[in-house]
Amino acid sequence: MIKPEQVMQYLQDHPNFFAEHPTLLDSVQLSHLDEHANNDQVISITQRQVMMLRKKNELLQDKLLALIEIGEQNDAIGEKMHRLVVALLGFNSLTEMLHGLQYHLCEDFSIPHVALRLWQTDDLDPPLPASVVDTVSDQLRIVTAGLSQPRCGTDVDDEIKQWFGSDAQYLRSFALIPLKKTQHFGLLMLGSPEVERFYPDMGTLYLARLGELASSSVIRLMRQSPQTTADTDESTP
Questions:
Q1: Taking the alpha carbons of 177, 180, 183, 184 in that order, is the dihedral positive or negative?
Q2: CATH code, 128
Q3: What three-state secondary structure class fits 44?
Q4: What is the pLDDT of residues 121-138, one digit of tens each?
């Protein structure tokens, strides 16, 4: 008696077998479970191949639709980031920039809970105006200095939660976005009442770009702030 292994080996050794005997494809019957009728049916190899190709095609279509959806989402985010860039370029003071940043994150990105703190560092020249410098703990500065990229998750220090005031009790996830030149000079915090809004393994590309935009805007406006200009004029003979 011929063993199944022998048949399999023969077909592997003769890949053109069915091409040379095409009628066998229609005559060989296979058992197939009809998921809709919930019973077994007998179909030919050709029918089975067609069904497998159709199923594979459906999977590819699903993947294509998913990629298209991701592309559309990225396009939408890109457009929102563009509007934010245009807005940041139009601000003329740090105070205006801080309020405008909060407004655009709320309106365009549906992030109503935004907090930002700035502190003085040695590499900021000119230094930050005293009106926008915040008092933060040394521990928070150390934590921020350890952030090379934005960090997302559900747990943050109590000191940071206090930045959100009475809304802190409703927030379930956070994004910590460091602001830096050479050294870290600030921290932009985003909060959400949704646990899955800012989760640990999420991509942070756009959050990193947001941090770069905010950092550049702070440095630009710091250089042209009225306080800095006044200090320069007073020191000129």
A1: negative
A2: 3.30.450.40
A3: strand
A4: 776 666 676 666 778 888
